[in-house]
C-alpha cells in the first residue's frame, strides 16, 4: 500500500488544462446539438403552421363549393327557386322569358346552361364535381332533345296552318 507519488505542479497543471479543454469541447458540442435540435423543431413548427393554413384554405374552398352545389341543386330541383319548368332565367339576371314548356319537355333551352366552372370552383376535380358535371351534361342533352321536339312541333303546327 504505497501512496502515489505527488505529481509535480506543471504536469498536474497541464493535465487539468487538457481536461478543461476537453470539457469545453464537449460543452460546445452539446450546445451545437441543442441548437440544431431547436432549429429542426422551429422548422417543424413552421411546416405545421403552413400545413394548418393550407388545410384552412381547403376547408374554406370546400365550404364555398358546397354552397355552390346547394344553390345549383336548389335551382335544378323541381319547384325550387329558378325552376326550369316554365320559365328560363336569362343570363342569371333574374328576369325570365315566358317560355311555355310542353308536357314531357322539362329541361333547359340550349345555350342557357351556365359554364360548369362557375359551379365547380377551385376543387373541380373532386368526385362530387365530376358527378355534378355529368348531371349538367345530361341536363344539357335533355334540353337539346326538348328543343328539337319543340322545333318539330312548331314546324308541324305551321304546316297544319298552311293546309286548306
Please tag this protein with its features.
164 residues, mainly alpha, two-stranded antiparallel sheet, 4% strand, rod-shaped, FBF1, FBF1_C
Over the alpha carbons, how many angstroms does the gyration radius reach? 39 Å
Through-space gap between termini: 146 Å
Helix content: 55-70%
What pattern of helices and strands is seen along the backbone? Answer: HEEHH
Q: Tally of extended strands?
A: 2
SS class: mainly alpha
Quaternary assembly: single chain
What overall geometry do the principal axes of the alpha carbons give?
Answer: rod-shaped
Describe the secondary structure blueprint for this structure:
Elements: H1 9-76, E1 87-89, E2 96-98, H2 116-120, H3 127-162
Antiparallel strand pairs: 1-2
Can you walk me through this structure?
This is FBF1 factor. One of its GO terms (biological process) is cilium assembly. One of its GO terms (cellular component) is centriole. Residues 13-162 form the Fas-binding factor 1 C-terminal domain. It comes from Rhagologus leucostigma. By secondary structure, the chain is mainly alpha-helical. 66% of the residues lie in helices and 4% in strands. It is built from three helices and two strands. A two-stranded antiparallel ribbon has the order 1-2. A hairpin with a 6-residue loop joins strand 1 and strand 2 (96-98). The radius of gyration is 39 Å and the shape is rod-shaped. The N and C termini lie far apart (146 Å).
Amino acid at each position: 500500500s504505497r501512496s502515489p507519488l505527488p505529481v509535480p505542479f506543471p504536469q498536474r497543471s497541464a493535465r487539468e488544462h487538457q481536461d478543461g479543454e476537453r470539457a469545453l469541447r464537449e460543452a460546445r458540442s452539446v450546445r451545437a446539438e441543442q441548437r440544431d435540435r431547436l432549429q429542426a423543431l422551429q422548422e417543424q413548427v413552421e411546416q405545421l403552421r403552413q400545413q394548418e393554413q393550407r388545410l384552412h384554405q381547403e376547408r374554406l374552398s370546400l365550404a364555398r363549393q358546397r354552397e355552390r352545389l346547394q344553390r345549383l341543386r336548389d335551382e335544378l330541383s323541381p319547384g325550387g327557386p329558378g325552376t326550369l319548368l316554365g320559365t328560363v332565367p336569362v343570363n342569371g339576371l333574374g328576369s325570365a322569358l315566358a317560355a311555355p314548356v310542353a308536357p314531357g319537355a322539362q329541361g333547359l333551352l340550349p345555350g342557357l346552361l351556365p359554364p360548369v366552372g362557375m359551379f365547380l370552383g377551385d376543387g373541380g376535380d373532386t368526385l362530387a364535381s365530376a358527378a355534378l358535371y355529368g348531371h349538367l351534361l345530361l341536363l344539357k342533352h335533355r334540353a337539346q332533345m326538348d328543343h328539337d321536339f319543340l322545333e318539330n312541333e312548331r314546324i308541324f303546327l305551321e304546316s297544319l296552318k298552311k293546309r286548306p
